[in-house]
Amino acid sequence: DLFRRLRQRGHGATGTARKNCGIYKPLVKLKAIDNTAAGSLEFNVVKAIPTADNKVNQIAWKDNALVLFLTTVFKGNERLDCIRKKPTTDQMQARPIQRFFGDDPVKQVSIQSIAAIYNNEMNAVDRGDQIRAYWGLDRRVRRGGWKALAWDFLLEIALVNSFILQQRGQPR
């Protein structure tokens, strides 16, 4: 519903989806059996299904694990060439990618544009949390209760986000 409304207002949106978010049921089933021998798809397999109103695309892409995406921007057939390293994990769900790489430690792979662009941008929240934890402005709050705590939290978020924007270049 959020993605549909964003699309109606002219905004593009892309993000990963959980199994319980109302995504197409066959994609949910693929995700549920992904880490079993019965359901292991080959590496880099893509399944794209538009919603009934054709406003949002639901995409499943097999990397180490099956990743579910919702997007108003991508159709599911766009690809980019990326250099990928062979994962070192021996888990069952990573066997298709291990077979794909064979003995090569690095390969140039044509992967989904949605995955490549999402992977480049997804680290922002995690990075912000890391910076907040490392440079935490731990101050004792003596008065004000939850309002003072909320203010401190929002101040930290604003400072960290400003720092990240300055690192990435000129803010708009």
TrEMBL record:
Family matches, as InterPro entries: PGBD
A Pfam short name: DDE_Tnp_1_7
Domain PiggyBac transposable element-derived protein positions: 1-163
Protein origin, superkingdom: Eukaryota
Protein name, entry field: PiggyBac transposable element-derived protein domain-containing protein
